[in-house]
Known about the structure:
five-stranded parallel β-sheet, globular, 2 domains, alpha/beta, 11 strands, two-stranded antiparallel ribbon, Rossmann fold
Amino acid sequence: MLRAVVDIYEKTAKCVTGACEIEAATGLGEDTVQSGGGRKFTHTGAAAVREVVARDAGALCQNQAARQVVPQHVFELRELCPLSEKGARLKVYLAGPDVFFPNPQEVGLKKKSICAEYGFEGLFPLDNEISASNLGKSETAQAIFEANCDLMDTADFIIANMMPFRGVSTDAGTAFEVGYMYAQGKPVFGYGADGLAYLERVIKADLGGEIGTPNDRQGMHIEDFGLTDNLMLVCAVRRYGHDVINSQGEWSDLSAFRKCVRLAAERLPLLRGGPS
């Protein structure tokens, strides 16, 4: 018998375990998760449901009552299982200029909550605890650098906020982190581009250049490949068979981020062998 516990996510950083609701609605019941093959799991929530659904899609999806309770994306992605080879949730490093936003902690919590909905564990740079009381500015900077690198080393892949930041291109620190993760052979996902080609953005910012004559006011050539950013960034994302997701909203709008997380849930099981 297929047994499942589903976490029903509210629009907060917390998730509420819906065991009672599932039991009442479907008769599946119990607070453990067991696959049809008999393997039991003690963890609950989206990761547990996704693991069960990946193995026992038919039993759960044919239960119409369950469809009224289980989040729709679980069924849509029911054949995918974004877990590491050891059965743990995949960890995603959440890169971007979000740490400079007016409310970085709030943004980080929201992003991590969205990641959890799709079975991922989000790692936000501000998760690092750095005591800078006895450090100077330079030492503090080095400590942050080392901590972020350590956090990336523990991550399985990266989702980068590639919105133009303080200029016409991706935040410099984010660009480094994309390269750092790519060099380790870890999948790269990106979102936040405004839809404009890099050349168009330079022209719009009145930095010089025009269509057909891509040079800035100093006579320097402006990259013109029709991409939304520098080719080394965009192609790092494209190397894994997908593109940077455009965002038409404000910096606080996380709809493009959610699309990116969903894309990762769809693509990662297909990327076990590396870039496509």
